[in-house]
Amino acid sequence: MSVPNSVETQIKAVSRGLDSRTREGRETRVSTISQSYPTTVEDLWEACTSAERLPRWFAPVSGELRPGGTYQVEGNAGGTVESCEAPRSFTATWEYGDDVSWIAVRVAPDGDGARLTLEHTAYADTTAEFWERFGPGATGVGWDLALMGLERHLTTGSDGPPEVDGWERTDEGRRFITASSARWAEASVEAGTPPSQAGAARDRTTAFYLGEAPEGA
């Protein structure tokens, strides 16, 4: 097995982007995160869709992982699988409380490995206040943590980042969260957000993930 990436290497290995689109005539914000892994398309697909492997790097997922089936991520969102073209792509709703957004996952060959690309789409009008306060890092840091867990799972065969209380206060955890939040702020500026607004949102998001501020701060 390979040696897992360091925090700094993992942060640099991930591509992040933001853009605006329309869905059913309404403006949406789309956050995109992508990473290449030293494995095959088939193995990467299985890691992302197998109920047995998902808990090893992401979280337990219950339900029917097929088109039209519903699913629930333990302690997180649930939804409906809208489409699936194994081993290349799937789409699903991402529902948390009263909020509904969408995810699209693609797996493709990338040189000697395989690349995972995830798009997370949300309506701009229903998330405007939250976005202004926390920016794309509010969900982006969470996806970064997932991709780091996947990298460690695929390179070592073990479980991903420590899923224990207090990991965010370790040196590794603080460095990772702070760097991820900063990269999402940079992506926000590139997408047109004023630097001062993006920086303030970055600081709030970082503090939240580090357990230094309440969610609504």
Automatic annotation (TrEMBL):
Name the record gives this protein: Polyketide cyclase
Gene source species: Nocardiopsis sinuspersici
Every Activator of Hsp90 ATPase homologue 1/2-like C-terminal domain range: 39-154
Residues annotated as transmembrane: none
Tree of life domain: Bacteria
InterPro entries with a match to the protein in the record: ASHA1/2-like_C (IPR013538), START-like_dom_sf (IPR023393)
Family to which this protein belongs: Belongs to the AHA1 family.
